[in-house]
């Protein structure tokens, strides 16, 4: 979950009650249209693993504002196209203001693309692999306040351990939990949020 300490509130523009982190137009659009919607597309899974890894230590808004930059730098998040990247490609990314210029995070995108492709070959698809962790159905939580939301769970820790075993990096339990929330394997919209009931 994008980290925040604000209270749940309605944005004045449309009167809808949202999760508190959806505090401006960019975040509200992402919250309403994407966050918590079940993903079944491998490219999108790779995109969210990449962006959630980039968030470590930063705000989600900082990452989201650079999403197009990441798409341009990393072949629209096509893992098979990122896997062959060389150290020279990473150096080019380090000079690109459109991405977060953190060497270890950028190197991890390439490392993860290679691991992602290998996992696809072993499991048929990343989507089939990751949805097995929730028995094919989203985990629907019922939290009333942001204070109740965990930073990680045994589910995210188990996913992170297995991904690391398969060669992924920047997949600790907190990053994995944010990824699970983003891709709809876990529905962590607050119960007062208009999206909680809509996502069932």
In short:
This protein has 200 residues and is mainly alpha-helical.
Work out the strand percent: under 5%
Shape: globular
- Give the proportion of residues in helices: 40-55%
- Name the CATH class: Mainly Alpha
Radius of gyration: 17 Å
Low-pLDDT regions: 3-12
- Biggest β-sheet description: 2 strands, antiparallel
* CATH architecture classification: Orthogonal Bundle
Largest sheet: spatial strand order: 1-2
Number of strands: 4
Describe this structure in words.
The strands form 2 sheets. Strands 1-2 form a two-stranded antiparallel ribbon. Strands 3-4 form a two-stranded parallel sheet. It starts with 8 loop residues before the first strand and ends with a helix. The chain has helices at residues 25-33, 42-55, 60-64, 67-73, 79-82, 87-94, 103-123, 126-131, 154-165, 173-182, 194-198, and strands spanning 9-10, 17-18, 139-140, 186-187. The chain is mostly helical and 200 residues long. The protein has a single domain, classed as Endonuclease III, domain 1 (Orthogonal Bundle), CATH 1.10.340. It is built from 11 helices and 4 strands; from the N terminus they run ββααααααααβααβα. The relative contact order is 0.17.
Task: Please write out the topology.
Layout: E1 9-10, E2 17-18, H1 25-33, H2 42-55, H3 60-64, H4 67-73, H5 79-82, H6 87-94, H7 103-123, H8 126-131, E3 139-140, H9 154-165, H10 173-182, E4 186-187, H11 194-198
Parallel strand pairs: 3-4
Antiparallel strand pairs: 1-2
Keyword list:
two-stranded parallel sheet, mainly alpha, 200 residues
């Amino acid at each position: 979950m994008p980290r925040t300490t604000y209270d749940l509130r309605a944005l004045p523009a449309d009167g809808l009650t949202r999760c508190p982190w959806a505090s401006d137009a960019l975040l509200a659009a992402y919250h309403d249209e994407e966050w918590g919607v079940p993903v079944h597309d491998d490219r999108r899974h790779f995109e969210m693993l990449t962006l959630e890894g980039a968030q470590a230590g930063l705000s989600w808004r900082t990452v989201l504002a650079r999403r197009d930059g990441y798409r341009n730098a990393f072949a629209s998040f096509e893992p098979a196209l990122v896997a062959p990247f060389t150290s020279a490609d990473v150096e080019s990314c380090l000079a690109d203001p459109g991405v977060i210029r953190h060497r270890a995070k950028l190197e991890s995108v390439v490392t993860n693309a290679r691991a992602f492709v290998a996992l696809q070959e072993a499991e048929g698809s990343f989507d089939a692999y990751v949805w097995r962790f929730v028995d094919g159905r989203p985990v629907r939580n019922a939290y009333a306040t942001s204070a109740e939301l965990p930073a990680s769970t045994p589910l995210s820790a188990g996913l992170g351990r297995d991904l690391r075993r398969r060669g992924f990096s920047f997949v600790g339990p907190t990053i994995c939990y944010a990824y699970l929330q983003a891709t709809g394997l876990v529905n962590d919209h607050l119960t007062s949020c208009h999206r909680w009931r809509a996502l069932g």
